[in-house]
Amino acid sequence: MRITFSQSGGFVGLPRGCVIDSSALPAAERDELESLVAQSGLDASWERSEPSGRDRRRYEIAIEEDGRTVRVCCDDGCLPDTAKPLVAFLGSRARTQPLVPAARWGRFEGKVVAEWDDGGRDMTLVQPFAYVDPRQERWEATAGAVVNGASIPRPFWSVIGGPFSGRFRNASVVHDVACMVRDRPWRQVHRMFYEACRCGRVAVVKAKTMYYAVYHFGPRWRVEERRTLVAGRETVERVVHDETPLAPSAAEVEAITRYFARHDVPDEAIPTLAIGPEERPALPDDGRE
After folding, report:
1. pLDDT tier for residue 73 given thresholds of 50, 70 and 90
2. Number of folded domains in the chain?
């Protein structure tokens, strides 16, 4: 059994964590740890937090055993009583970690400052905002851009609590803008969304679930360049064809959410993964955009 534990938040806020391989522990400690895991009730992946939990401690626990991984992300207000002895055991072995673990996922520049429009659905950015991805490619959300979360399939809003709630906000804003501008391939845009989620410290299970959601059900487009002769001069018109798939059913959303709660899926496998009440065909990935 291998357990990865991290703790953040609270009044001090310094992240702490540890990785424990039970096979390397003395027999007494190994038995104690395995007993605590068995009694914890953490037998499926989930994420939960209190709405007013800004100063609460937040825990992320990954338990790997027999080829299966259970990931739990929660704050101390949602931590089950049965899991508290396990968290105390892990916390006593945790050490302070550097404050830069998200650097591998890029960085945000600026803050999301926006005003709600009269209709109550759209927001207009008041200040420029940007995400710089791990390859140093810059994704701009300029002042005046209108965002509404529509780039995230609405049936999945019940999973994340709305596209502008919590840690999704920054990623949702740049993803919305990129899906409206459509000057880059849709596959690249949706990968950016996943990386921006991870940069924003969205829990890994939820980030992967939403990557699947936008990749398989989010906006898609194909760009055609039409060349014509006007007064003897060639002009090029950029025509964008929308190819967004149908929205998922409630049963599909439930199946997808349940699948990611139970399986540790490599992010590179998500584009060709097929999940659903009935088998969905894998997407052909012939390199065309």
Report:
1. confident
2. 2
